[in-house]
Design brief:
With 156 residues, this protein is α+β, with helices and mostly antiparallel strands. It is 17% helix and 49% strand.
């Protein structure tokens, strides 16, 4: 019985440390990464919702972002980018086929959290669905698209 109690205690201690460990890793990351994503409203029957996600800039200054739009999603050219203080971040935005390219006028400094909002999004599904947007970045001195995460947008 004592072995079972010890094993359970150790297992719970190890399992409960993982969320804290993962949170610490992301906060001290050396590369940009996604922090949050969602839709407002997240009702699948609403044809003009806003899909958004946050990017925490780490490692080196950020020059560009690329977003692959999933099939069945139509993103209009109503994309805004703001920082953690709700200040607009100047950027040139282009949509080509199912890829959005965002080129920042000035490199975005490390420590900044960007909110990318895609307004007026329409989807092909009137039922709940999970839309996956792969997101890539280019930082100062790196001439390659580096995957930084997948923005997961769920509608009901």
């Amino acid at each position: 019985m004592k072995k079972l109690i010890y094993a359970t205690t150790i297992t719970l201690a190890i399992a409960s440390s993982f969320p804290a460990l993962a949170g610490g890793i992301l906060r001290n990351a050396k590369a940009p990464h996604l922090v949050h994503s969602g839709a407002h409203p997240n009702n699948a029957r609403i044809s003009q919702s806003t899909h958004h996600f946050d990017v925490h800039v780490q490692g080196s200054n950020l020059e560009q972002l690329f977003i692959d739009v999933p099939k069945g999603v139509n993103v209009r050219n109503r994309i805004t980018i703001t920082d953690q203080s709700s200040n607009k971040v100047d950027a040139t935005i282009s949509i080509n086929d199912n890829r959005i390219a965002i080129a920042f006028t000035q490199p975005v400094p490390t420590g900044t959290t960007l909110l990318v909002s895609m307004k007026g999004v329409s989807t092909s599904s009137l039922r709940g669905y999970t839309w996956l947007y792969p997101v890539y970045s280019r930082s100062v001195g790196i001439n390659a698209d580096v995957p930084i995460g997948i923005a997961r947008i769920q509608t009901y």
